[in-house]
Design goal:
The chain is an all-alpha fold and 180 residues long. It is 59% helix and 2% strand. It has a two-stranded antiparallel ribbon.
């Protein structure tokens, strides 16, 4: 699986690009939504924390990881709950202003968790999209096409490339050094 850094930085970069080039309004899409995307990108790997608890009951890592949280159901549930909360927010907006929109947070969580699934399926291994209802798995597993001696460093290099891209973005686009 790609490292957590890959999941987080990919979500951060894509949300930042979306925010900068499509929304273009800090009030409609505040910067803390980027943090929410980063958290959403690691939601499917919360099953690793569950493994540490369930290992006391003789569950193996393979029985826990990439099962329930690595399905299409998690992003779909988050998206549907976001749609439902959108209706409530329309009703609440008539009563008065409020800053944080639960629907946006749920949509961003859904995006982050879906992006996690895509990265897992493309880079390393396969995912079972409809677990436990189907055992059909999908994935390109691109890491296996590399020579075995560089597979581990390829994931580290991907993290480094994403981090450098994000740092250059922060400096040259957002002028982050002017804050110091």
């Amino acid at each position: 699986m790609p490292f957590a850094v890959t999941h987080i930085l990919t979500a951060v970069i894509l949300i930042e690009l979306f925010r900068n080039y499509f929304v273009k309004d800090n009030k409609k899409f505040p910067r803390y939504y980027i943090l929410i995307a980063a958290i959403g990108a690691i939601i499917p790997d919360l099953d690793i924390a569950a493994y540490y608890i369930l290992s006391f009951f003789s569950f193996t890592f393979d029985q826990i990881h990439r099962t329930f949280l690595h399905t299409l159901f998690i992003p779909l549930i988050l998206f549907l709950v976001g749609l439902a909360s959108l209706k409530i927010e329309i009703w609440r907006a008539k009563l008065g202003k409020y800053h944080m929109k639960l629907s946006n947070i749920l949509f961003i969580f859904a995006f982050g968790s879906f992006l996690h699934l895509i990265l897992d399926a493309i880079i390393v291994g396969q995912i079972v999209l409809l677990y436990p209802f189907s055992d059909f798995s999908i994935g390109l597993n691109l890491i296996n096409y590399l020579p075995s001696e560089i597979q581990g460093t390829a994931l580290l290099s991907l993290d480094a490339a994403l981090l450098l891209f994000w740092l250059f973005w922060m400096e040259f686009k957002l002028k982050i050094s002017s804050y110091f």
